[in-house]
Amino acid sequence: MEVPRSMMRFKGFSSTRIKLYPLEHLPRRSFSDLKENFSCNDEVLPVLIVGAGPVGLVLSILLTKLGVKCAVLEKSKTFSQHPQAHFINNRSMEVFRKLNGLAKEIQKLQPPVDSWRKYIYCTSLSGYILGSVDQMQPQDFEQVVSPVSVAHFSQYKLTRLLLKQLENLEFHISNGDGIEELNHRLLRERMVLMGHECVSIKASDHCLTVGASFIKEGKKTERNILCKILVGADGAGSIVRKLMGIGMQGERELQKFLSIHFLSQDLGQYLLHERPGMIFFIFNKDAMGVLVAHDLSQGEFVLQMPFYPPQQNLRDFNSKACEELISKIVGWELGDLNVIDIKPWVMHAEVAEKFVACDNRVILAGDAAHRFPPVGGFGMNTGVQDAHNVAWKIASVLQDISPHSILQTYEMERKPIAIFNARLSVQNFKGSMAVPTALGINPAAANSVHRIINSGMGSILPSGVQRAILAGIFAAGRAQISKSLLNDNNPLGSLRLAKVRRIFDEGKSLRLQFPAEDLGFRYLEGALVPGNYKASHASEAPNGSKRDYVPSAEPGLRLPHMNVRMLPKLSSEEVFSTLDLVSGDKVEFLLIIAPKNESYNLAQAALKVVDGFGVSLKICVMWPPGSVKEIDANKTALMSSKDCIHVEEIRRASPSPSPSPSWWDICQMTDRGAILVRPDEHIAWRTKSEVSDPTSEMENVFSLVLMGKKTCL
Predict the structure, then answer these.
(1) 528 Cβ partners below 8 Å, 6+ apart?
(2) Are strands 279-283 and 356-357 parallel, antiparallel or unpaired?
(3) From CA 206, how far away is CA 202, in angstroms rounded?
(4) Using CB atoms within 10 A as the burial measure, which of 237, 331, 438, 553 is most buried?
(5) Residue 537 placed within a domain
(6) pLDDT tens-digit profile of 112-143?
(7) Where among 428, 453, 477 does a domain terminate?
(8) Residue 515 placed within a domain
């Protein structure tokens, strides 16, 4: 679906179905009705989320689906139209599959894959192509290891779809006008309050009091909101993080950039037909930069340029100057060029010292907890997975299934993943320097000179001299990629071009996909029963090489995907993923077993044990192919249980003489075992063999997972 350019230029969202509602216009109940229906406890909102970016919105949807009342504060009055993040990895798309078909809608609306699957390195968008890398492989579309593929979809478009989901859940987006009618402490659930900035957090035994600042009739006004749990999903400059005094650790200011958002249908159509791609790395004597093609059919782009303040400032990059830069990287002047936005930003690789604070009542998620270089697309994706991890834990606390201490396992599980992804992103960013280095450009030279100028003796030089020194460094670097030097007839140029080709041939250029890290990250401790298993990729230091995802049912890993169908087969032959066996609508665990008497005994014991914990459990009996007659003849009591379903494996056709792997082969175990899966689709516990005392084992397992303590066997 093509979005009109007029809509893309608009800074708000009034052109979508979501509208900003003053509170007095909310439907159905008056304030007096609300007041009568709220008890003292009702005045305390269960969960307040600060930040209405993708992470905050995803968390609000997940919590609402789990039956948890929540609301969102957002300091901006409108939603950003800057494209920002655009790559959605496999694991995030799996999460989106559970949000009322969101993944399917993204796939329908995203640009065709053939228009964005390549990274292209060139001297200009119409000039010589130094090389290209196809970031998609055939297996990416075969859905062998996941029921869904990756996507290329701009963040502001994702935000629109998330708002649409919230609207369907009866959320209201309000600009705050008229909200003072309500009790000063009362914030209605299922609301997104725009233009409200968190300015204070105070804790008492009963609840948290969050101070929110907003502008009313031109005057700054504050109100207090009571909540039980506060989630800071308010971005890299998180106010929640700062108010809690939580520091960041890692590498700061790796590079400063200028982000130029522009539209050009002419350029989009040219690239779509002549050299389609997602990211273009441009190197010529007049300009260098990285162009992200967010949507070629719509002609929407973002140009990323290195930025060196204070020698350079935003006044140097007005619309006219940006148009000239764009012409240099394109290779000709665009007649329909429209510069939308120009924003500076700083690349960091940092992780918060703590993800959970204030007696487990304040939680950080997304960029508030970690900020990475954007190469590899780990930023937003890691944040979405933060929300997926913590949502069921918040629900289990508020529904009296678990104590507050289970929220500490969120930090235990997610912080190591964030640290790993930060290191991987830095490594990937530094790896992106391989091509310019081979071309004779020293990417570190300008940064080193810039640091020298801004410190020590360099800082006392007149500003004009400082600018001249920096400009000289830029000119010297760009001279290395002039046409007279960079060609096969020039010995030095020929040598450099050969080095560049070798980088592409050996697969050492910048990568988009990280299969092992995307689907294979593992929680080593937390709300699970750890085992003595081989270390996963997530626990190893990144080494720069591509690693394939290898399915396994080790505790802490995400449940492997396999297509199955429901038994007994009636009229429906619907095929679905093992991931779909996990409910997204309640805090429910899943126990997968084979059709064996010993496993039935374990399942019966588990069903009795969970009653004492107040949590739901679904039993799934995994049958091999062709089991219809066998299941019809089976008379076990478990067969008729409302908590039990039966599914049949659908094995993939194998080109080799050997049979395709069974479900238990994929899980790297035998059918004598069992797998317990958490509500976030990660494995809480498994056994490879028969359990001698099923009741004691299950009591121990659920105590560890839900209560954070171990009982005696």
Answers:
(1) 555, 556, 678, 682, 683, 684, 685, 704, 705
(2) unpaired
(3) 11
(4) 553
(5) no
(6) 999 999 999 999 999 999 999 999 877 777 88
(7) 428
(8) no
